[in-house]
Design goal:
The protein is built from 14 helices and no strands. The protein is mainly alpha-helical. It starts with a helix and ends with a helix.
Length: 328
């Protein structure tokens, strides 16, 4: 019984500590956020794991050593409590550092608008990337697809070299606007006709433009964001805009299969209207998607240009690092 009493006493302390921690944490969250939603979410996070893990725990307990399961489980629970304590001592400053990028951009609407514009670019590029292979294979061979990708990759290289030598327009934001407008036109051209030659040329130019856009964006952020906070701001920007890539992958495939391809089939809803211009049959739904993406790019570019905080971002925000001429 002495071993059992020792285990029992240890488990009592463990459970009391865990319950006390959960109770105190829930009160602390509510006092600091004044949010019932945050409070209830914390309660959910303390009860949901038990519901989810219990069926699995029964199988694990029957197969492995109960002693080691108790040791490992209590050890992990103790580590979590220590982590909460460390975050409480350090959470304020740590959390402020995490959210610093968001707050920095919110205080500078021009840079925040540029993040949103980049997100749109990423969504378009991601959608085009996902649709290129099935679209090309609808009217060309696998060998032609390989050639198209090779030529497109060379466009990426050429665009990088051009941007390195040229450096963009005097105002980089204008380089972005002009490039995005051309990008929209090229997307329309790529989807307008089932032609290997036309698609190859359009895809090459699209890939040539992408590094020009990216280079201009980076120049603006390098100039307007202070060096000592660039890591946090750039990390937040990257997380925000990169999230639109998987979103484009998830949506464009389903839209192509469930909506656009059926309406552009030979007996589809748009076969006797738009189909008379871009053709009907397999792949023409994805061609229509390219056209819509191009038009959307043009509209988004116009809206972005009409937003004065973004259009004037280089004039309104001072450079974080003065130009050498200004220093002189």
């Amino acid at each position: 019984m002495s071993v059992f009493i020792l285990i029992w006493f240890g488990q009592v302390l463990s459970l009391v500590g865990s319950r006390t921690t959960g109770f105190a944490l829930s009160i602390w969250v509510y006092q600091h956020t004044n949010s019932t939603t945050q409070f209830t979410l914390l309660i959910l996070s303390t009860t949901l794991p038990t519901i989810l893990i219990s069926p699995i725990a029964g199988v694990v307990v029957d197969r492995w050593s109960r002693r080691w399961i108790m040791i490992i489980s209590d050890f992990c629970a103790g580590l979590c409590t220590l982590l909460i304590a460390w975050l409480f001592i350090k959470t304020n400053s740590f959390w402020q550092q995490i959210t610093f990028g968001w707050k920095y951009l919110v205080a500078r609407p021009g840079l925040l608008g540029l993040v949103m514009f980049i997100a749109i670019i990423n969504f378009l590029v991601g959608s085009a990337e996902a649709l290129t292979t099935p679209l090309v294979l609808s009217f060309a061979s696998a060998q032609s697809l390989g050639t198209i990708y090779s030529i497109a990759s060379s466009g990426l290289l050429v665009g990088s070299v051009v941007m390195s030598i040229w450096g963009g327009l005097e105002r980089q934001i204008n380089t972005i606007f002009v490039s995005m407008a051309f990008l929209g036109i090229l997307y329309v051209l790529a989807g307008l006709k089932a032609s290997t030659v036309i698609f190859t040329i359009a895809n090459f130019l699209i890939f040539l433009i992408i590094p020009i856009i990216n280079g201009s964006i980076q120049v603006i952020y390098q100039k307007k964001v202070a060096p000592e906070v660039q890591g946090r701001v750039f990390a937040f920007r990257s997380a925000a805009v990169q999230g639109f890539l998987p979103l484009s992958y998830l949506t464009c495939g389903a839209l192509a299969d469930q909506f656009f391809e059926p309406i552009m089939a030979k007996d589809g809803a748009l076969a006797h209207s738009i189909g008379q211009i871009i053709g009907v049959g397999h792949g023409r739904g994805m061609g229509l998607m390219f056209i819509i993406m191009g038009l959307f790019s043009l509209v988004a570019t116009l809206i972005a240009y009409l937003y004065p905080r973004l259009r004037c971002v280089e004039h309104e925000l001072p450079d974080a690092i003065p130009d050498q001429l200004e220093v002189s």
